[in-house]
Amino acid sequence: MADVRVGVFICHCGTNIGGVVDVPSVVEYARALPNVIYAENNLYTCSEGGLASIREKIAEHNLNRVVVAACTPRTHEPLFKNTCEDAGLNRYLFEFVNIREHCSWIHMHAKDDATEKAKQLVAMGVAKVQWLQPQQEYEGDVLKASAVIGGGIAGMTSALSLANQGYEVHLIEREKELGGLVKSVNRLFPTNVDADKVITPIIEKAKANKNIRLHMPAELKDVKGFIGDFDVTIYENGADNVIKVGTIIVATGAQELKPDGFYNYGKMDNVVTQLDLEGKLKQDKKWIDDLAGVTMINCVGCRIPERTYCSRFCCITAIKNAWILREANPKAKVVVLHRDLMAYGVEFEEYYRKAMEAGVLFLRYNLDKPPQIIGKEKPEKIKIHDELTDSHLELPCDMVVLTTPLVSARDNEAVSKMLKVPLGDGMFFLEAHLKLRPVEFATDGVYVAGSARWPVDITESISQGYAAAAKAAIPMSSGKIKVEAITSFVNIGECIACGTCVLACPFNAISVVDTDGKMHAQVNEAMCKGCGTCVATCPSGAIQQKGCTDQQILCMIETLAGGL
Amino acid sequence: MDKKPVLVVGGGIAGIQASIDLGSMGYKVYLVEKTAAIGGRMAQLDKTFPTNDCSICILAPKMIECARHENVELVTYAELQEVEPDGSGGYKVKILRKPRYVDIDKCTGCEECIEKCPIKADNEFNQKLDKRKAIYIPFAQAVPRKAVIDADICRYITQQKCGLCKKVCQAEAIDFDQKEEILEIDAGAVVLATGFDLYDISAMREYGYGQIKDVITAMQFERLICASGPSHGHLERPSDGEIPKSLAFIQCVGSRDQINNPYCSSVCCMHATKEAILANEHYPHLKPHIFYTDMRAVGKRFQDYVTRAHDQYNVEYVRSRPSKIVEDEETGNPVIYYEDTVSQTVKKKEFEMVVLCQALIPSVSHQELAKVLGVSLDSCGFITVPDKLFNPVDTDKEGIFACGFCQSPQDIPDSVVQASGCAARVAEYLAEVS
To answer: Rg for chain B (alpha carbons), in Å?
Structure first.
């Protein structure tokens, strides 16, 4: 180690550290450590005075490594790294030692021991910092074009938003027309507006937008590359076509469950699903006049052991269609059988109340006592057990509408494999974090919107369409991505190309490649997040992580062991 | 291209997410928060459903990312004073910075002043379950982690006495001469993310809140069960500090009724389920009862969460809307009167603690905010989104967008989605008007 010159700055953090740890004695101790040229204590190292001192001492003593022993890197590391950089030192020649959370706060009743521990922590930091190397951060270009897979309401929203922001968009739709599932719907809750009337203008807008290139009908064949530089292969007009984009949005939607095996569906006339009914309502409506009664059965094929989830908006669909039928024929007995009525929020609760006022009867049933349809070729009556009054009812019924959930699209598995993004419960796409990253994948540059992720209604699909557009716009706005230099790297000579790291990497950042006949792992820095999983799994120690190499960690352990 | 800055109002999870996204798209963002720190309601929660992630542990990195973002400027302890159209699609905004009496550039958050301050007040962050000082940091993970002086009770400000904080502050950050300041910006667009408040249920005397000691609110429960809360995560009941041997939750308190609030608050079924799970996790002897109207487990993986609560955490779901809670004369415990809808009989059951899932209402600041901004409110006080179906984040004023609970009851992921959605709409809008 030629000419390593370490400066150590130890913080009192007011009384947070100084009230427990004897900071001046830690400074004295630090001064005697190998390679330490300078050491001082500050009341607050993070104050402007403390930072100025770091800058001055780097210049004065020609320091080329800096250790700060203070609070937590979570809030303060960037501040100190920037300070080093301001003084002309590469920001990766800095090491943070936490003597607050890791020491003074947890040993406040053992002051002498805490001081000894602080000394050891500082010694370990000083030992590590000598092995740190200056690092360059990876910078990559991002193509200002996006591929949106799926031309339903979520996909069209993403495409239009990105196009309006000035990005080039490739909208890829499998079918011959845009609109997706919404095209099959008659009217839309909670305003009961005609679906075609409001969807058609959006389709026209998407078709007319000069920044949107429509690929329709087109099939997704293959995806290669990573954030900023994807090659998306689609099959259209009888040939493969490769599109180059920087980001991808998955908006492939979902489909209605066809409830074969439930309540004589498919065997008896006039036992239909909500979507079947929407189709009937879109045509001639005369048949409604002859209805004596209609019963809707909610949660058919869902919230059961085989399919446990609630499909979120089907209760509202049932309310809508029940209300429409009741309004069209006030003599008809219109019943909605539910297990819980999911009218969440302001509008849906009001919608529910208005449907009740319009004469729709809402009854609660239990799976233990399901309704029974009476009739041969088609329903004539229905036997119902109302849970809330514990009474058995027999009502006129010449149509039964089964409210079924949305289920994942058939080709989700193929799409997920091509994009290397995961599927979760029910084969819906699995987001990076359920709570805080709902439209992102763990893999950068690929986003998800709408019912491809989980059943959502139109409003929520549109919100997610916009959200995914924002996420895709972020890397495209600057056209650059920058990656912190904590990525892993492969010592090719030691790599045996076993592929363990490839499987372990949660971000698909590693592949096995051939360099002049030698097979070895290779890390794509644009995709690596520096989690270190590959390092831990590599059987030959060939993968190392910048700022956390074996050498850097082992020398810390040796220092600790030597001091004990 | 010279981009106009964007104003984001409200520093909860929605405002934080909108600010980060807009900042990362290259827009200068001013995030205005009326309290002394960002974090909002999510910072008060112990865990989040349905993953049981520690709430502050997943929020704090976002708060820090937001505060550190080169394009985001936090304007805490501040309110909108005046907003006028600037004639080119944007708004001239005057923001009132309230005096904090602490120079945040100098304050290091060391808390020595707090230790010495002799004046105490109810701690709002802990739902008044304990006290804070007149000089305080709103909560342990507050961003910015800087002190603020409550001018209403500070002895120096009210009586020119004391000044201990100034004496002990080695960073010389205390500044009693601070005055209100006006910050003027020309914003290209505005994002509203003002969140929710808690409905005052003390007027609903049938449930005994404020009269029966061991009847608490769900937000109080969050603070009690939280390791960083006033009882360090021990579910100490207010009457005697003992751990209750029985526990009940009542849903829809002040919501889904025509007297109080007609709407469903959307999140209470799930937070009650979460709180019941946490109670049983902490104290396996507890069999929490949840009295509910409809169990609205409508989000991703919610239904499985409810099933797990029932099967693995001994949570009893009772389909009933209790009519009243009375105090048992002997034990002082709350007794719930309810109709068992299965047996069709009126029953009563004594519990050692009852948690009321109170209605969540639009921020009380909305009336004033609506006046200043010229946006309208719906009949419940939420910010109006005229075409909610197809333009779910556009308000009735051009260039003003709204996300999260301020525009309709919703949970954290939906708020985050709308926040990012607002970022996209702002980008579209600014591209259009330039």
So the answer is: 23
Complex ipTM more than 0.90, yes or no: yes
In whole angstroms, how large is the CA radius of gyration of chain A?
Answer: 32
d(CA A422, CA A443): 10
Domain that holds residue A514: 484-546
| B369 contacts chain A (CB < 8 A) | no
Partner-chain contact B431 A165, CB within 8 Å = yes
B49: left (phi over 0), alpha (psi -120 to 50) or beta: beta
Does residue B136 form part of some domain?
A: yes
Q: Is residue B323 located within the same domain as residue B208? A: yes
Note whether A274 and A314 are within 8 A (CB): yes
| Structure confidence at residue B341 (pLDDT) | 74
Q: B171: which chain A residues are within 8 Å (Cβ-Cβ)?
A: 43-44, 47
Nearest chain B CA: its distance from A133 CA (Å): 26
Q: How far is A218 from chain B (nearest CA, A)?
A: 26
**Residue ending a domain, choose from B329, B344, B359:** B359
Q: Give residue B1's pLDDT band: very low, low, confident or very high (50, 70, 90).
A: very low
Does residue B424 sit at the A interface (CB-CB below 8 Å)? yes
pLDDT, residue A2, reads 65
CA atoms of A280 and A185, how far apart (whole Å): 10
Q: Which residues of A touch B296 (CB under 8 A)?
A: 340, 342-344
Q: Does B53 touch chain A (CB under 8 A)?
A: yes
B61 with B123, same domain: the answer is no
Whole-model pTM?
Answer: 0.93
The nearest CA of chain A is from the CA of B307 a distance in Å of 9
- Which of A303, A388, A438 lies nearest to residue B417, judging by beta carbons? A438
Residue A541 has pLDDT above 60, yes or no: yes
Position A49 scores a pLDDT of 83
Q: What CATH code is carried by the domain that includes residue A275?
A: 3.50.50.60
For B108-131, how does the pLDDT look when each residue is reduced to its tens digit (9 = 90+)?
888 999 999 999 999 999 999 999
Yes or no: say if A35 and A5 are a contact pair by the CB < 8 Å rule: yes
Query: pLDDT at residue A368 above 60?
Result: yes
**Residues of chain B neighbouring A436 (CB-CB closer than 8 A):** 13, 17, 58-59, 62, 412-413, 416
Closest to A443 measured CA to CA, from A505, A536, A511, A503: A505
Residue B247 domain boundaries: 201-359
Mean pLDDT of B322-338: 97
* Residue A262 parent element (H or E): none
Return the sign of the alpha-carbon dihedral for residues A272, A278, A283, A284.
positive
Q: Which amino acid is at A487?
A: T
Chain mean pLDDT for chain B:
96
Please tell me the total count of domains within chain A. Answer: 4
**What is the per-residue pLDDT for A1?**
52
